[in-house]
Amino acid sequence: MGHPTRILAALCLLFGAQSALAQVSSPSSAWQPAPSASGTVVPSSSSGPNSQWLEVLGSNLYYYDEQRAGVLPDDFRVDWRNTSVLTDGAVANVNLSAGFFDAGNFIKALFPLTYTLSSIIESALLWGEAYSSSSQAYYLDETLRNGLDWLMEASSQTDTLYMFVGDQTAYWGGDLNIPQPRPVYSVTRENPGTDVFASTATTLALGALLYSGKALPLSQSVNGTLPSSLRNTTYADSLSNRAVQLLELAFAATPMQVYQKAVDDIAWAYPSTDYDDELILGAAYTAMATGNISWVTTAIDTYSTNAYPPTFGALNWDSKRPMVPTTMAQLALFLPGADSRLSFTKFQNDSEVWLDALVAGNMKDTHTTPGGLFWFKGNSASASLNPALNAAVLCLKYAPMASTSAKTDAYRQWAQKQIDYALGKNPMNTVYQVGLHPNSAFNPHSALASGGTDLARINTSPPQELHVLYGAVVGGPDEDDKYYDVRDDYDQSEPALDTVAPMVAISSYFVGQGQSASNPFFVGLTAPRIIPKRPSSGLSGGAIAGIVIGVLLGVALLAVLGWFCWRKRGRNAYRRRKMGL
Ligand SMILES: *[C@@H]1O[C@H](CO)[C@@H](O)[C@H](O)[C@H]1NC(C)=O
Ligand SMILES: *[C@@H]1O[C@H](CO)[C@@H](O)[C@H](O)[C@H]1NC(C)=O
Ligand SMILES: *[C@@H]1O[C@H](CO)[C@@H](O)[C@H](O)[C@H]1NC(C)=O
Ligand SMILES: *[C@@H]1O[C@H](CO)[C@@H](O)[C@H](O)[C@H]1NC(C)=O
Ligand SMILES: *[C@@H]1O[C@H](CO)[C@@H](O)[C@H](O)[C@H]1NC(C)=O
Ligand SMILES: *[C@@H]1O[C@H](CO)[C@@H](O)[C@H](O)[C@H]1NC(C)=O
């Protein structure tokens, strides 16, 4: 402590915490999502953004308000939410009361939060004008400040990063009775979390780019656009300085390890896959934010000594390897000539190794479901839409940088199919964003939205969710395209900060196209929704026939077996957010 930049940052936080932080002034009347019935209305205006894409984007940002923790600002627009968890972090002398609840429960988890914020910020550095043209820049700023300030507070003590608040206490209910005490977990120089140090640095560096008004390159000849009036160099400098501190810590602290190794108690929640991707991304974005060439060298060195480019594997909150080469390609355009090894064509070629396998459908450990959802073995088992939509975002982002126009088209077409699937072009005729359309999923696994308090009866009490969780993108269907829409099936029905993040990027991309964007798929969707009844066990049809003719003993035995399979399915989930369920 005592370092001038730290004091400055602390002061910024102190001022920021109370009043509205946003720089863009608050709209005279708050943007609110439209009722889902309007999801079939064909956009009619002849200028400005496509109104249905605007609805997708506006609701996505609204979701981050719904998930907001701590003191709610005066002009807060979600009228069913309350101020909560004011003492988060107090046991450790940090004020972690703000920020966001991670998903359907009340934990705060830094690792997926950094992925979420990075993804949103990147969209604003590429297609940023979309936020201004749709009058969403104020909400973008509010969301980002709430997240970035929380990261600044979480990293405000020297050599320490608080990266988790809460535990697995079984609680289902609203925001007034959240169980206390809430433990906080940290990694330190002595007990490091290489990935979380670096992923926080990435997010802060991206924030520094945004608030200093430096867009990312869109292609070899065009830069991205920025939302107007977000620039604040004081803020950008404090974010950038902290990014550097955290990145230095990530590279210096030994042993280098994933964070759940340092803090075994939270390994149940969001286990990280590796840390080399985080280190390279952190170095690349910090190089862009600071202009310090030595981070370029570090990024290339780390890239060369790890297995890049990847040929398969999902892009998700836990593993960002597929986006590492595309970020290096951006870096090569952003700081041309910074290092003799920083060759755009090399990283372009490397980027296309993964992307070409993706669009050709010959990537290892992947397939497409009968209904058209791209499936990554393992990663798609829980929140199946997430890796598919993240890949779609990578395609949209990279397409203008591709080595041939045929590849540009192929990447965009691939992305469009996954986006259409998520927005209703699927065997369930279901729109997987809540509140957008009469066919939207309506039972998101969300303690906040459901209004229920009975942990044993979360599916039926109350029968209908009390609040529509506008903007939430649910996990998604199973490998047979089936979506049951029941609250306790967290693999399918749980929205989270990170499941909404790719839709923010997608909707801002289409909003940015103005009137030339084609309507989102759901606008023309009139076929009735199909909501299959969830099978009560993992048994095959033949086994069920066996039960029918079987003796009572057989029935009991198979029922136990079926229950076991069902439990196992949940436990195999790639990530767990079960919180006592
Ligand atoms: C710039 O950001 C700082 C830090 O959050 C804040 O205190 C200040 O009010 C902002 N300036 C403007 C013009 O909004
Ligand atoms: C944390 O900050 C919030 C917002 O400024 C404040 O209301 C709360 O009392 C603080 N918590 C503690 C323990 O000081
Ligand atoms: C917010 O507080 C009100 C009472 O003022 C309560 O009725 C409501 O359920 C609370 N909201 C949530 C999400 O718990
Ligand atoms: C993109 O922006 C950078 C500064 O951030 C500038 O140096 C470069 O010339 C711009 N490129 C184009 C093609 O406008
Ligand atoms: C650039 O970064 C390196 C590595 O952190 C550091 O040693 C050096 O002082 C930085 N240079 C400048 C000009 O900030
Ligand atoms: C492109 O990358 C692949 C895979 O790493 C490599 O085999 C090939 O030589 C590269 N081509 C060029 C032109 O760099």
Automatic annotation (TrEMBL):
The keyword Ribosomal protein is annotated on this UniProt entry: no
GO molecular function, a single term: cellulase activity
Substrates-to-products reaction catalysed: Endohydrolysis of (1->4)-beta-D-glucosidic linkages in cellulose, lichenin and cereal beta-D-glucans
Superkingdom of this protein's organism: Eukaryota
Gene Ontology process terms (BP): cellulose catabolic process
Signal peptide: 1-22
Entry keywords, A to Z: Carbohydrate metabolism, Cellulose degradation, Glycosidase, Hydrolase, Membrane, Polysaccharide degradation, Signal, Transmembrane, Transmembrane helix
Pfam family, one: Glyco_hydro_9
Domain Glycoside hydrolase family intervals: 55-506
Name assigned to this protein: cellulase
Enzyme Commission numbers on file: 3.2.1.4
EC class name: hydrolase
Family classification: Belongs to the glycosyl hydrolase 9 (cellulase E) family.
